[in-house]
Amino acid sequence: MKIDHSASPARTNIESHLKEKRLFQPPREFAQEARIKNFAQYQRMYRESIKSPGKFWAREANELVWRKRWRKVVEWKPPFAKWFIGGQLNLSENCLDRHLTTHRRNKAAILWEGEPGERRTLTYQQLHREVCRFANVLKRNKIGKGDRVIIYMPTIPEVAIAMLACARIGAVHSVVFGGFSADSIRDRIADSGAIALITADGSYRRGGIVPLKKNVDDALSGGTSVKRVIVFQRAHTEIHMEEGRDVWWHRELEYVGGDCPPTPVDSEHPLYILYTSGSTGKPKGILHTTGGYLVGIYSTTKYVFDLRDEDIYWCTADVGWVTGHSYVVYGPLANGATTLMYEGAPNWPEPDRFWRIIEENRVNILYTAPTAIRAFIRWGDQWVKKHDLSSLRLLGTVGEPINPEAWMWYHKTIGGGRCPVVDTWWQTETGAIMITPLPGAIPTKPGSATLPFFGVDAAIVDARGKEVGPNVGGKLIIRRPWPSMLRNIYGDKERYKKQYWSEYPGNYLTGDGARRDQDGYFWIVGRIDDVLNVAGHRLGTSEIESALVSHARVAEAAVVGRPDELKGQGVVAFVTLKAGVEASNDLKGELREHVGRHIGAIAKPDEVRFAEALPKTRSGKIMRRLLKEIASGAKVTGDTTTLEDFSVLAKLAQSDE
Ligand code: WT7
User: Fold this and answer.
1) Mean pLDDT over all residues of the chain?
2) Is 634 exposed, middle or buried (0-12, 13-18, 19+ CB in 10 A)?
3) Under a CB-based contact definition with an 8 Å cutoff, are residues 632 and 571 in contact?
């Protein structure tokens, strides 16, 4: 079914084909105990949050610790917003110290399980002490307020300790996903001007060891702004320690005490930079600041997961992504919750690892990604059935649209039909969840992220910026600032303006296509820019193209996505080779590895296809739409090294500009 019937020239060509009719009411027992107990209460609070955002957000902010109260809740000089102006606070104080005077001081803050199976529990008191000690290590190493620090670590408690320690002294962290390569680290150091880097010798993944420190050494060879590398000993592998630059985490601790008062910072003081893909080759350093971000993640964690003090909450994301920042570390800890962290792969040693962890820890809330859910479905229900999942009371998803059948499986097979499912839409840029069910209040429809969170003024517009009617596809925008929004692309105001605020001035462009149904529910279709969503993570096609073109034998490359059963989107690269270079399967393999080395394994093309030339319009634009169709079409049979012949298409293309 085509939803977009409009013949208007402003139509965006975004179509949504889903016609899902199932509706799930919040379970009565759940709703009774929930903070937001019914739809009317949600509507009342939503209306208030839109009508008087200052009042709404001030109330939320008042639940947190401020060293100095703000003068004004928000100042909006489009496209720049400031929140809680004049306020001073410290994020680590809000995540740690504030719980030490309550019954939570002896509560588990972090439950951790390593891939090989070891377990650690850190209470709020213990975590506080470790953060203070490590903050003193940072100071000892001449790292201070405003300095940028790269964190490149496995999912171990120390990654949270490192982040919180930076926040404690006002240093700005930039976590680089442990799956990224040396080149990616180097780019991020250069862009952020980081003076220090925190890493580990290695990390466990599917029984093997990821050589983190080796990647760091490669990234730093040739010289960067990084003066100090602090290395945590995780895998006990042999590594190189550079005299005068590298120090061991455990050795450094011997020199410091456990006392480190939090440094109060301005509400708009930078908290972190997190790099994400855009539609140009250069990753964007998304800048988040302190006060508004804290209020946003505190409030969303509280209402969306409806946390109770006795809950064990598990978000399976890697800390290297924004979900790890907001909903593994900062959101849960700001709420005094118990957050579970697991280091390794979901299918190690067997495909039931997640269910074993849930059973053994009596996990109550599970927050994971559709790509993982699809993998579980594929591995088979027998792995789930082996375990008692009756402790679960709430399920969440994030990262990409979830197809209704996967939603149903999650609901039935994992949730036993009794757990609400919250499909949460947001982005690295939004910092916190934006469109989501509230589990006790908003009836859910499989595949829909439902309705906007408090204070979020989301709309779907046509190419001219006019709001479209029900069931018409368009572009998803946010019409006013929100506390946890990005403040800038690090060091690049012009790009920030152009990327997010220029198409519909004063409105934030998400880059996603969507529609709203007759009940106002949002259905996200996916990215409309040249950005892929592979296994819930954004990859810029041009980044991968740049990596390919940096190979000595490649002349030109075009990267497109194609539907992938497991990953949501797969990466297909069309490559033309330099004159005289022979196409071969070996070269295909080499190019895949090349991309892996330059960006990380996640960006490796699933398929490399060689072409004599790429189909282009007369003005020289690569015809991606056409390549996309070819990429998702039937698999080419026969000799896989055959060159694509685009000459016919290219001729056809001349009329299609
Ligand atoms: C993009 C943001 C937010 C943390 C993980 C990814 C897609 C995210 C959903 C959802 C449909 C979703 C969007 C968005 N996305 N959540 N619930 N339903 N699509 O963060 O790397 O910044 O990517 O992920 O396309 O724009 P990110």
Assistant:
1) 93
2) exposed
3) no
Q: Answer yes or no: is 464 within a domain.
A: no
The residue whose C-alpha atom lies closest to atom 14 belonging to ligand 1 is: 427
Could you give the C-alpha distances from 65 to 46, 299, 309, 403, in angstroms and in order?
A: 24, 14, 19, 40
3-state secondary structure at position 362: coil
Residue 642 domain flag? yes
Task: Determine, yes or no, domain membership for 455.
Answer: no
Report the alpha-carbon distance of residue 37 to residue 31 in Å, rounded.
Answer: 5
Cα(427) to centroid(ligand 1), Å: 5
Give the DSSP letter of residue 411.
Answer: I
Distance CA 116, CA 642 (A): 44
Q: How far is the CA of 448 from the centre of ligand 1 (A)?
A: 13
Per-residue pLDDT tens for 150-166?
999 999 999 999 999 99
* Lowest-confidence pick of 257-266, 332-341, 627-636: 627-636
Rounded Cα distance, 482 and 296, in Å: 8
Residue indicated by tokens 């964190």: 151
Tokens 């895949």 locate to: 592
Which of 399, 438, 405 lies closest to 422, judged by CA? 438
**Which tens digits make up the pLDDT trace of 252-290?**
999 999 999 999 999 999 999 999 988 777 889 999 999
Q: Ligand 1 center to residue 424 CA distance, Å?
A: 8
Task: Report the predicted TM-score, pTM, of the whole model to 2 decimal places.
Answer: 0.91
326 Rama class: left (phi>0) / alpha (psi -120 to 50) / beta: alpha
User: Which runs of consecutive H residues, i.e. helices, occur in 170-224?
Assistant: 182-192, 212-220
* H or E stretch covering 564: strand 554-564
The neighbouring-strand residues paired with 148 are: 172
**Which of 427, 477, 484 to mutate for ligand 1's pocket (most ligand atoms within 8 Å of CB)?**
427
Nearest of 590, 653, 583 to residue 611 by alpha carbon: 583
Question: Which residue, by CA, sits nearest to atom 23 of ligand 1?
Answer: 427
- Is the preceding omega at residue 505 within 30 degrees of 0, hence cis? no
> Domain containing 544: what range?
531-654
Closest CA relative to residue 164, chosen from 127, 191, 206: 127
**Length of the chain as a residue count:** 657
pLDDT digits (tens, 9 = 90+) for 112-136: 999 999 999 999 999 999 999 999 9
Residues having CB closer than 6 A to ligand 1 are 276, 321-323, 398-401, 423-428, 449, 510-512, 524, 526-527, 533, 536-538
CATH number at residue 587: 3.30.300.30
Q: What's the domain count of the chain?
A: 1
Do the beta carbons of residue 395 and residue 414 sit within 8 Å?
yes
pLDDT at 252: 98
What are the strands, taking DSSP E only, across 496-600? Answer: 508-516, 522-527, 531-534, 537-540, 554-564, 568-577
Q: CA gyration radius for the chain? A: 24
Tokens of 295: 């209020």
From ligand 1's centre to the CA of 536, what distance in Å? 7
pLDDT in tens, 480-534: 999 999 999 999 999 999 999 999 999 999 999 999 999 999 999 988 888 899 9
Q: Are 484 and 514 in contact (CB under 8 A)?
A: no
Does 424 map to a domain?
A: no
3-state SS record for 16-36? CCCCCCCCECCCHHHHHHCCC
537 Cα to the center of ligand 1, angstroms: 8
Q: Do residues 379 and 351 make contact, with C-beta atoms less than 8 angstroms apart?
A: yes
Residue 476's φ and ψ, nearest 5 degrees, are -85, 125
Cα–Cα distance, 226 to 207 (Å, whole number): 31
